[in-house]
């Protein structure tokens, strides 16, 4: 009986040591899991913080974009209004000038350094043309190319086309 008790005690002792080793291994595993959990929580907090910052920045950008869009829409409205005003003004001026006869081109003396239409000074390198009708000197802006017949000033060109059938 004593021997049986001794073997049972030895077996119990071995089982207790195995259980203690298992317990220590499990405690070590629990410690590692707690450490991983702690790191995961820290990562989660960092990600949550980063997400909040990103959301805040996104909302700020959206608010800025909305304000900019509102300003642009207001500017477009103002520009459309101004365009309508200018069109009305142009129509009113056109109606006022419709009955006015175009004046005949006033010949400019031949040696003058001014354009016969716009009175712009001719410079050393500026191109000047001689009107084939009134013989006035005109700049490229105030002249019209009439093909093989040469160039003429805008006033003569308009006067010639208004008399054409």
From TrEMBL:
Q: Where is the RUFY4-like domain?
A: 10-95
Instruction: List, alphabetically, the Pfam families matched.
Output: RUFY4
Q: Sorted alphabetically, which keywords does the UniProt record give?
A: Coiled coil
Q: Which InterPro entries does its entry note?
A: RUFY4_dom, Znf_FYVE_PHD, Znf_RING/FYVE/PHD
The coiled-coil segments of this chain are 16-43
Q: Which domain of life is it from?
A: Eukaryota
List the protein's name: RUFY4 protein
Q: Which organism is it from?
A: Tricholaema leucomelas (pied barbet)
């Amino acid at each position: 009986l004593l021997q049986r008790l001794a073997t049972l005690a030895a077996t119990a002792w071995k089982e207790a040591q195995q259980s203690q080793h298992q317990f220590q291994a499990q405690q070590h595993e629990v410690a590692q899991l707690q450490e991983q959990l702690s790191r995961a929580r820290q990562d989660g907090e960092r990600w949550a913080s980063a997400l909040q910052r990103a959301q805040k920045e996104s909302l700020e950008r959206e608010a800025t974009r909305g304000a900019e869009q509102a300003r642009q829409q207001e500017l477009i409205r103002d520009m459309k209004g101004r365009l309508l005003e200018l069109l009305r003004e142009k129509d009113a001026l056109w109606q006022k000038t419709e009955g006015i006869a175009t004046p005949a081109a006033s010949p400019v003396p031949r040696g003058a350094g001014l354009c016969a239409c716009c009175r712009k000074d001719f410079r050393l390198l500026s191109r000047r043309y001689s009107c084939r009708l009134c013989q006035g000197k005109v700049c490229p802006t105030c002249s019209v190319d009439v093909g093989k017949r040469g160039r003429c000033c805008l006033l003569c060109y308009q006067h010639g086309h208004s008399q054409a059938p």
